[in-house]
Amino acid sequence: MALRAFYNEMKGLKVKEVPSYLKPYFSVKYMKQSFNRAVDNYIEKYIETNSVQPLYHVCFGGMALSYLIALPEERRHLEHQKAGHH
Question: Of 3, 17, 46, 51, which is most buried, counting CB atoms within 10 Å of its CB?
Fold first, then answer.
């Protein structure tokens, strides 16, 4: 819903007005407030309800992170393997 409202506000702007409209969203203060709001919402939605979802988030997040960390090595390995067969 918030994204739709943001889009509708952006639609009414002229191109020259876009940077000054977006600038406050990239301030350190706004970023901190957004992060704190997101953490509060997460705690309210998952932690306080005794949901098992945070466990899944940690498991899948760890898997994704380890995959991303290993990706450069895997790509080098695949390139080396591919070059050796030709």
Answer: 46
